[in-house]
Design brief:
5 strands, SH3 type barrels
């Protein structure tokens, strides 16, 4: 009987170790498939917006193409189309793509 209870105790202990191992494996998998790519994308966007300057062609999150006229800390003024009267202030976070002048995309 003592041998049986020792075997049960050891089986219970190893099942906890296996459970912890699976939790760690799933955590590592989630980190490399979800968290790390998201942080990489956030850093890319942060760098892109930090390099934003007047004269850059931009694409906004609403799908409009324009040219940056002025850059402030949190806002930019974007000119849309050839009409010089269509200048709209917007948040920097509304910009999704930037094309520097003189570069071919």
């Amino acid at each position: 009987m003592a041998l049986f209870s020792a075997a049960v105790a050891e089986t219970g202990y190893s099942s906890y170790i296996m459970l912890i191992a699976w939790v760690v494996i799933i955590g590592v998998f989630l980190y490399f498939t979800m968290i790390k790519p998201q942080k990489k994308e956030q850093n890319r966007i942060k760098t892109m917006l930090a390099e934003l300057e007047a004269g850059d062609s931009v694409l906004t999150s609403s799908g409009f193409y324009g040219v940056v006229i002025d850059v402030d800390e949190d806002t930019v003024i974007v000119e849309f189309g050839n009409n010089k009267n269509c200048r709209i202030p917007m948040q920097k976070t509304a910009i999704t793509q930037i094309e520097k002048p003189g570069t071919d995309a």
